[in-house]
Design goal:
Layout (H helix, E strand, L loop, with lengths): L1 H20 L5 H21 L4 H20 L2 H4 L5 H7 L6 H22 L1
Helix pairs in contact: 1-2, 2-3, 2-6, 3-6
Length: 118
């Protein structure tokens, strides 16, 4: 479990660096979304010993659900003014984010397969 916690901390640091210093049209909007699935996966696996494939499917579904809340403008409907909550929940829907989440899930799956073989 400590390996997952370390990986989560590393991914979180990368995500924060992207959010703070990347202001481009590719890394910030897409790589950040690719990395969010492995980040959440590692957080869950650090505290809950579930079957990796099931956890990964659940995390992918959760990411897609959060994206759908952005389509419904949930943050605005809930009158959320807290900047951190708005960043976590997100406020802008993008269809391409589903592809980024799927890419993150595939990378996580490949990483887990490689870990299992070593």
């Amino acid at each position: 479990m400590r390996g997952y916690a370390r990986a989560a901390l590393l991914l979180l640091a990368i995500e924060v660096a992207i959010a703070l210093w990347m202001h481009d049209a590719f890394v910030r909007p897409y790589i950040g979304d690719v990395l969010v699935v492995p980040l959440v996966y590692c957080v869950v696996m650090a505290v809950y010993r579930g079957r990796p494939n099931r956890v990964l499917v659940g995390v992918f579904a959760f990411a897609c659900l959060v994206e759908l809340t952005q389509l419904a403008h949930l943050a605005d409907r809930l009158h959320l003014h807290n900047r951190a909550l708005r960043v976590i929940l997100g406020t802008s829907f993008e269809w391409l984010d589903f592809i980024a989440y799927a890419a993150g899930a595939l990378l996580t799956y490949a990483w887990e397969r490689r870990r299992a073989q070593s």
